[in-house]
Design a protein that fits this description.
By secondary structure, the protein is of the alpha/beta class. The chain is 46% helix and 8% strand. The radius of gyration is 24 Å and the shape is globular.
């Protein structure tokens, strides 16, 4: 029983040794994150001040008003060219995505598990979806992405993403089993509990990735769902090509990217090695006897895991911002507007583990090794 403190109230129970260690590690992670954000803000301010100073000095050194006018016009022309290039790239991307909506491999993210998640967990999954869209948009042959069962808090948080209303993606409030009832025989749920190993992607099939931030609270739920609905299930052949080390978890966007890489290369091994971070891989083998795999998309919450890594890499942050920009508003007309979009990355700051593959916070599909 807790002993009362001086105010006659029961004192909080003492933390165990492991709990204290986890708390201290969490506090260190939060402290380092705050320091990084402050340092990044300071760096941006200094860089902006330096650019303004250099520009002012350049104008002041102009020999005449005509030369000043030429410098100003040259700067405007450079900005126009940059925006025209971005606009052209954007139009090409839109064309690819529209074609994918007609002939691309269909990939569904099942969002029907929102009622099992907290708002913060839903937020983590929403960030995963944003990265999926950005990666898909960069592909030469993108997939046709679907979001099904999208309603309530899940839909609300998605609508908050910058530019979401302009995404070229299928969004259904109905479950996939209803929205795609005419193709029920072609539905394939990716789950680690499946007996069938996915040897190749069939363009006629529709592959489903479960979106569930469960931290292993709901093991086997996706397999049970597939069985109850009478649809096919399969697991990715990861164990045929590599052993997994450290955390046995993949993200939703990593699974989508693996599928996209396979569509590009028709080589599972290449897809796995290009997407799965090196720290999660063991030695590659041609055949591994253990046939358990990690499929679709479980990820760890970085700040919650006492085992977590604190990634402090400028390239990681740059990739994160690039992803936010690519999934964000279309038609940015000036640098100040672009900077305002980049600030959205602050809401994704906890999603720090990219390692070149944009791994974010937890968004699981109940697929594990």
């Amino acid at each position: 029983m807790d002993q009362p403190n001086g105010n006659g109230q029961a004192a909080a129970p003492a933390l165990s040794k492991n709990a204290r260690k986890k708390l201290l590690k969490q506090q260190r992670l939060e402290s380092r994150k705050a320091e990084r954000k402050a340092a990044e803000k300071e760096r941006k301010q200094q860089a902006a001040e330096r650019r303004r100073r250099e520009w002012d000095e350049k104008l002041a050194a102009a020999a005449s008003e005509e030369e000043r006018a030429r410098l100003i016009e040259s700067r405007r022309e450079t900005r126009r060219e940059r925006m025209e290039k971005r606009s052209e790239e954007r139009e090409i991307k839109i064309g690819r995505l529209r074609r994918a909506a007609e002939v691309g491999q269909r990939v569904v993210v099942d969002l029907e598990f929102a009622h099992l998640m907290t708002p913060n967990e839903i937020h983590s999954l929403v960030q995963q979806i944003m990265y999926c869209y950005a990666v898909n948009g960069r592909c030469a042959s993108p997939a046709h992405l679907w979001l099904t069962g999208c309603s309530g808090e899940m839909e609300t948080q998605l609508q908050r993403l910058p530019g979401f209303d302009k995404w070229i993606i299928e969004m259904e409030s109905r479950p996939y089993i209803e929205a795609l009832h005419d193709n029920k025989e072609n539905l394939v749920y990716l789950t680690a509990d499946a007996e069938t190993i996915l040897d190749e992607l069939d363009p006629k099939k529709i592959y489903i990735i479960g979106g569930l931030v469960d931290r292993n609270r709901w093991k086997g739920i996706t397999m049970k769902k597939a069985n109850d609905q009478g649809i096919q299930s399969a697991k990715l052949p990861i164990a045929n090509y590599l052993k997994m080390s450290s955390s046995q978890i993949l993200t939703v966007n990593q699974v989508v990217e693996i599928l996209l890489k396979y569509l590009e290369t028709r080589d599972w091994k290449s897809a796995f090695f290009q997407v799965i971070p090196p720290r999660k891989r063991g030695e590659a083998e041609e055949v591994i006897e253990d046939e358990e795999t990690i499929d679709a998309a479980e990820i760890e919450r970085v700040e919650d895991e006492a085992k977590g890594e604190d990634v402090d890499d400028e390239n990681v942050r740059l990739q994160k911002k690039q992803c936010v920009r690519e999934a964000g508003p279309e038609g940015i007309e000036d640098e100040s507007a672009e900077d305002s979009v980049r600030t959205v990355a602050a809401s994704v700051d906890e999603a720090v583990d990219f390692e070149g593959n944009m791994q974010t916070k937890e968004a699981t599909s109940g697929l594990r090794e």
